[in-house]
Specification:
- With about 1000 residues, the chain is an alpha/beta fold.
- Helices cover about 35% and strands about 20% of the residues.
- The strands form six sheets. Strands 1-2-3-4-5-6-8-7 form an eight-stranded mixed beta sheet, sandwiched between helices. It has a seven-stranded mixed beta sheet with strand order 11-12-10-9-13-14-15, sandwiched between helices.
Length: about 1000
């Protein structure tokens, strides 16, 4: 379907992309104004590349060639160019052809010939692969389904571009030429190839920013202080291993050194003879464009802009920010900021502190991203207080505070940290999510290998902070949180929880279950931990309370015993100051230091289970536990441990669980909802998640001043570990033989042409059309017949068969049985006529009520199933019980589309009212298998057809056997020109 009139310049084809080496390029359609650029580009291409393109010596382009290659109709003839600095570095074009390979005359011809030309200096950067992704998307938009390309056998680079793309292809050899033909329909392999290239390119672009060989700080004042001079001082004090330069156009003539820093000083970048990898810009906003231009001309790879006065300053600043981004990308540079706090890399080979933080954090394995500089300061300070120094429990691998994040965002850092060997835990503080759909995709992939902990600000007002020019997310924050958890993200609410969870995950292995052993020398503190475990849904064992005079050796023995047993999955140690005497005393050592050493010894002997400590008035204990320690050695034999004395009677078996209050029970979850295809074999229990750490870890134990904080962090680890186990064997999207995808697509095209919704608008389908579309996906709806008068109602009831229901469909009374707008179990004509009169007398005229007659269905539980597309979050599938549970209490569960069988099974059980579906208080359980299938079919409909922007099924009556859809509404809209499912591109806000 064409979204642009013929010959109109398609602005939505313009895109910024990251190339294989981390640099950027702009892709756009070629226009007649590009004639000089094309000629200049061609002159810089080698004779060999020209020969490969034209199969003959072709030293220059004729005027006819230039006209042909710059004039396109953007339908049958399309040309795209990749540019850097406004100049072409590569081109691609396609021409629609018929089955004989001649120019197409019939608009139904769906094949095109494609050809590339890449400047030699830019070959190997992945430019052709990026162009292929975009020109394929353009061709699909214009109705082309297949590409053909003729390539000389010696042109191995171009053959590899085609063969590595992942499309279904055919390869032939004739007359000395390799002919490649491939379908443009995306495949699982082509999407994987595209996503893999995107990840490597974006990760490389961040790596270039975080590990520069040389840094120029632009805007360094001559007097001490100021943003530029302070940033330079922080850079030097961090032990930066590369070259540093101070730049200020106001430096006096002849000044070549800045003292006391002792770094080279220049008036402009042009005076620096060597390459500059990173420019840190701290000049007034009015002067930033000039500085960025100098950076681009000097070949700088990336810029960090500390300057303010952009989108946070209002509409004028927002336009200034957009112009800044366009300028930086035109030179192939990534940009952090503006209004950024800076970035840090603690790797010994780099030691970069290009930020306003005066103290270099300790090196560790936490990756930290914030949008707010103030929160960045708070996080760095909080982590430093919990474990200062290299190798401490709170050490970081890298830190980025992106400010307005006009370019580099949390998504880019997720790409980088995904396979960064120095990062074990990712911590993000987000105030807005520019591309939630991509964020969910990247977070899910990253969370499969390392924890991702997120705190989100600005949750409830529905607007992004000043400076964050992002799409507005219309779904509530509770939905965003649910979708994050579906993606494996650990969502917390406060900065304190962010640090608490991050420290535990960075220092401890993942628990294999929810059984928590509690031990300590205070019964009250142990009971607080016990209660906190129950609150968080964990399964605490009976606390093992030591005597008040218990010594560090007693703690060590008790912890070793708990870790060695099979009855627990994690241990919480509680400690208060004690008084020791005789052999139990530790002369010359503080009690906290001695206890820390004892706990470390026990933890090192059995490092497979997480340990956390709750302490009161023992700060030296927390400091010692957080400091670097030795890596664990071989564990001693559990037989060498002796039981610790206890002040309370021990249970028959140490660590035996306490009887917990009864909880609602559900029947075993079926491995797969029924589908028309064969069922796979019964699932087995998934293996535990892979160990979190990738290297021998020093024994560091997180300590907390409150039991609730320690247990909450541990509970997040338990839930994340369970998600990891499930993610190891993900669910599947079942195939149903009765789904008519092609016919549904034709119906949708016809309905859109008839309804004609404008750009960005949706249109509701008339009830018969909605029911017919749903039927294409195996979703039958119970017919309802209009009853504008009593006689028509009687005829409708006779047609449907008694008993029937009479209900109103007026918008203000829809689904309001409490107002008397729904009358059920009408058994005959006399009762129907009487009910019709009561309804119209009480609620209004038939014209107002719009009554309908519907056959009765088996009794069951009334539910609601919805699917909607949020412009930012993407397609969301929602489920809840109809009426008060969902409308009043908000008891609705959400999953991203496409949903798998595992997703919908969890979705059904995740609502608080789920026991009503599973036989609560002796009622008969309903058919949740049929309900899961309905959810999957709705998910398939919305996923297969992006034009379907809303589906509302209410009520869906789920009976003990089967279900009935009594009401259905569908909305259609023309899909956006570009989505996250299209070719890779950098966002522009």
């Amino acid at each position: 379907m064409q979204t642009q009139p013929d010959h109109a310049y398609p602005t939505h084809w313009e895109a910024d992309v990251v190339l294989r080496d981390g640099g950027t390029a702009q892709i756009r359609p070629i226009t007649p104004d590009d004639a000089e650029r094309l000629v200049s580009f061609y002159e810089q291409v080698s004779d060999e590349s020209k020969y490969y393109r034209f199969f003959a010596p072709y030293p220059r382009l004729s005027d006819r060639d230039v006209h042909r290659f710059t004039h396109h109709d953007y339908v049958d003839r399309v040309g795209l160019a990749a540019t850097v600095g406004g100049e072409f570095i590569a081109t691609v074009r396609y021409d629609r052809i018929n089955d004989q390979g001649l120019p197409a005359k019939d608009p139904e011809d769906d094949q095109a010939e494609v050809a590339f030309l890449v400047q030699d200096a830019h070959q190997g950067r992945g430019v052709a692969s990026a162009l292929l992704e975009h020109v394929a998307a353009v061709a699909r938009e214009r109705g082309i389904r297949r590409f053909a390309a003729e390539v000389l056998p010696a042109n191995s680079k171009m053959i590899k571009v085609f063969t590595d793309a992942g499309y279904t292809q055919k390869r032939t050899f004739e007359d000395g030429v390799v002919r490649l033909e491939f379908d443009l329909e995306p495949t699982e392999q082509s999407m994987a190839v595209m996503r893999g290239r995107e990840q490597r390119a974006e990760a490389r672009s961040v790596q270039r920013l975080l590990a520069p060989g040389s840094v120029a700080v632009i805007g360094v004042g001559r007097a001490p202080g100021g943003v530029g001079r302070s940033t330079l001082r922080n850079l030097l004090d961090s032990g930066f291993t590369g070259r540093a330069h101070a730049v200020n156009h106001a430096f006096p003539e002849g000044m070549d050194r800045l003292d006391p820093e002792g770094v080279p000083a220049v008036r402009s970048l042009r005076e620096i003879p060597d390459p500059v990898d990173l420019a840190v810009i701290a000049v007034p906003a009015d002067h930033v464009p000039e500085v960025v231009r100098d950076c681009g001309e000097h070949g700088v790879q990336g810029v960090l802009i500390l300057s303010s006065g952009y989108a946070e300053a209002g509409p004028e600043g927002r336009e200034r920010q957009r112009a800044l981004l366009r300028q930086a990308r035109s030179y192939g540079m990534r940009l952090i900021g503006p209004n950024a706090f800076g970035m840090i890399n603690t790797a010994p080979a780099v030691r970069l502190n290009a930020s306003l933080a005066p103290q270099m954090p300790g090196a560790g394995h936490i990756g930290l991203f914030t949008q707010s500089g103030a929160i960045g300061i708070a996080l760095l300070s909080g982590l430093h207080a919990r474990g200062p120094g290299d190798g401490g429990i709170a050490g970081i691998s890298s830190f980025v505070s992106a400010g307005n994040r006009a370019d580099v965002s949390g998504n880019d850092l997720l790409q980088y940290w995904y396979d960064d060997p120095d990062t074990d835990v990712v911590i993000l503080y987000l105030e807005s999510i520019g591309n939630p759909r991509k964020f969910a995709r990247l977070a899910r992939r990253t969370a499969a290998v390392k924890p991702v902990v997120v705190a989100k600000g600005a949750r409830h007002n529905g607007t992004a902070p000043l400076g964050h020019a992002v799409p507005t997310v219309r779904i509530p924050d509770s939905t965003v949180a649910a979708l994050m958890r579906q993606a494996g993200v650990i969502r917390v609410d406060t900065i304190t929880e962010l640090i608490d969870a991050g420290l535990l995950l960075a220092s401890q292995p993942l628990p294999t279950g929810p059984r928590i052993a509690i031990l300590g020398n205070s019964e009250s503190l142990a009971l607080l931990a016990y209660d906190a475990c129950l609150t968080e849904g964990l399964r605490p064992l009976r606390p093992h309370v030591l005597a008040p005079t218990a010594t560090p050796d007693d703690f060590r023995a008790a912890l070793a015993q708990s870790l060695a047993g099979d009855g627990c999955d994690a241990v919480v140690v509680t400690a208060i100051p004690w008084v020791g005497e005789g052999e139990g005393a530790v002369p010359g050592a503080s009690e906290g230091t001695a206890l820390a050493a004892a706990l470390r010894t026990a933890a090192a002997a059995d490092p497979a289970k997480p340990v956390t400590v709750v302490h009161l008035a023992m700060n030296d204990l927390a400091e010692t536990l957080a400091a670097p320690g030795e890596a664990p050695g071989p564990p001693p034999s559990p037989r060498d441990e002796t039981p610790a004395p206890s002040s309370s009677p021990a249970p028959p078996h140490p660590g035996a669980p306490v009887q917990a209050p009864p909880q609602p029970t559900y029947p075993p979850r079926p491995p797969y909802p029924p589908s028309s295809g064969p069922r796979p074999p019964q699932e087995t229990a998934p293996p535990p998640p892979a160990p979190l750490r990738r290297r021998p870890a020093p024994v560091r134990i997180p300590a907390y001043p409150a039991a609730e904080r320690a247990v909450r962090a541990l509970a997040e680890a338990v839930r994340y570990a369970a998600w990891r186990r499930e993610a190891a064997e993900p669910g599947r999207v079942p195939e149903y033989d009765d789904i008519q995808e092609t016919a549904a697509g034709a119906d949708i095209d016809r309905l859109l042409d008839r309804l004609g919704p404008g750009p960005g608008r949706s249109a509701p389908l008339p009830a018969p059309d909605a029911e017919a579309l749903l039927a294409r996906y195996g979703i039958p709806t119970r017919p309802s017949l209009p009853a504008p008068d009593p006689d028509t109602a009687l005829r409708a009831a006779a047609r449907l068969g008694y008993p029937v229901a009479l209900k109103t469909t007026a918008p203000h009374l829809r689904h309001r049985a409490d107002l008397g707008g729904v009358r059920l179990d009408i058994a005959g004509e006399r009762e129907l006529r009487r009910t019709y009169a009561e309804l119209t007398d009480f609620l209004g005229s038939p014209e107002e009520l719009r009554p309908v007659v519907q056959a009765m269905v088996p009794r069951g539980v009334d539910t609601v199933v919805r699917a909607a597309i949020d412009p930012a979050a993407g397609a969301v599938l929602s489920f809840g019980l109809a009426g008060a549970p969902s409308q009043l209490l908000g008891d609705i569960s959400h999953r991203l589309i496409p949903a798998t069988d595992r997703d919908v099974a969890d979705q059904i059980r995740s609502i608080r009212a789920a026991p009503l579906l599973f036989g609560w208080r002796g009622s008969q359980p309903v058919d949740t298998t049929a309900l899961a299938e309905l959810l999957l079919r709705v998910s398939r409909l919305v996923d297969d057809h992006p034009e379907v922007v809303g589906v509302d099924l209410e009520p869906v009556v789920v009976a003990p056997h089967g279900l009935s859809v009594l009401g259905a509404a569908v909305r259609l809209a023309r899909p956006p020109a570009t989505t996250d499912l299209g070719p890779r591109r950098l966002p522009v806000y």
